[in-house]
């Protein structure tokens, strides 16, 4: 891989050899993954090991203004099937079409001319630099602003935002796609559900794409807890907050906020970085979570495993079981997006 | 009616639902009956409020009447805002003989002596609760009637329930309570709830309780779905034991509706998977927060269904035993592995 110009010598800036991840050929597979793909044969399985979160001064690669757009909001996650005949150089035409589509849908029965300036203004922008590998497509950011017809020019207000991305997507899978298809499997949305549905519907019509919700299961949340805790030495995570819900009558919510230094020491005693090319195994993540749950149990005698882990949050971000995510810090965004891209590709029906 | 009284009045009226307005105004009995009967409570809120304010002005009602109305509203609707408990300790010899009149006199005298501008109202409710409303001022400002402190005390009990007290006024209220009830000191109760009723029921033990007894067996309503007889037989004894433990710790019946409990943990690590941490001397710090629409019932259900193992840990049963919902848990010196002692 080429050298990335970084001011700081982080592990990411050193030449990285491509790692061979083993995909689904072994017989000893974690049983928890099978029930998620009922009856469908996917080539993709979630990896049982992954690299530790690498700090990256992402602002060297990506425009800080673009990064700021990604950081502020709480995003709802969906997966997207590959887009047919999507061209990155036709974004302005897509913007006009989507804008007319939205206006037309909102005023059913009235003919709307493409390019007419009323109601909604849509912008499609590329966010270059987020994509990691050669086969990743560039991220596309979509913004919908409402423009009341008789208002002043500066009365525009952003009412909806969304972005499609692919970071470190599985290269075998991406190369196996037919030439006309572009894969941007991860879709983040923020804004009213009605607009999200319209955008998805337009994508469906124009690019034959299907969307599906991407709830984050406890395994993904566990990974995030471990990965984020591992970042504490380089970037103060300030707290590790985990929230469970027990289905008692009435429902009991338990939140456990661990001191970040203590959480890190626990993680460090379970997983010691052996080399610069740091790999974390699933067993270590499990041991970390078990450690926390057992410590809790010794005090309160309540089995947290009887409940469901709902949210994991640190200053680096927060993730919710419903598939909502908030990114707090741009330094580790690549690792987070890699994990989510993998998950989106995995969840996608083939 | 001056501007202050108007603003307090409109604030109170804004909070009262239209359907309760009539009853509240009747109880207040400051407006003539014929005028009250003429009020149309189905009008839009803004018009209704203006109409009632107009009636009050016509009848020359002042700040005193308005604060009275506010107090009546709070007494009728105690489960609003945020309440916290304090406990009076070290009673003097004649504490048990304090009467209401004496209490009122001493309380007002003390506060009026130390705070320049202050407005105090004391009312005794039919259930023996003394309600105190205090609007605080200082050397330069008149009493602020928009942010009054409320305190509730049952004579001859050691608890006081307080709502909306600023830190700078705490010392004055504490001293006044100590003097008026003839106790030497007052301490933090570590119990905070939204519902005054829940707090009062918990601390004054006004809820069904079960005392540990080897012979006592509580009959449980059999709402469970029918099980295979062999399974039912195996499980019934376990179920009985769990149910018994749950009732002893959290009460068998409707429990006071607490919403949260917070535990600040400063104990040594007691989990698996880390030998180095388990042997270490440092604390594994964290804060655990339980929340539910009725916390004690949730815990009861957890214990009865086995999600929480019995015997119920003293950390959880301390909520009912000690009547508090904020705890700091520390290790009591070196502890053999597998156990965790606690000191609160």
Automatic annotation (TrEMBL), chain A:
It is found in: Chromosome, Centromere; Nucleus. Coiled coil: none annotated. Keywords: Centromere, Chromosome, Nucleus. InterPro entries: CENP-L (IPR025204). One of its GO terms (cellular component) is chromosome, centromeric region. It holds the Pfam family CENP-L. Belongs to the CENP-L/IML3 family. PANTHER family: CENTROMERE PROTEIN L. This is Centromere protein L. It comes from Danionella cerebrum.
UniProtKB/TrEMBL annotation, chain B:
GO terms for biological process: CENP-A containing chromatin assembly; chromosome segregation. GO terms for cellular component: chromosome, centromeric region; nucleoplasm. The keyword Nucleus applies. Keywords: Centromere, Chromosome, Nucleus. It is found in: Chromosome, Centromere; Nucleus. Pfam families: CENP-N (PF05238). Belongs to the CENP-N/CHL4 family. PANTHER family: CENTROMERE PROTEIN N. This is Centromere protein N. It comes from Danionella cerebrum.
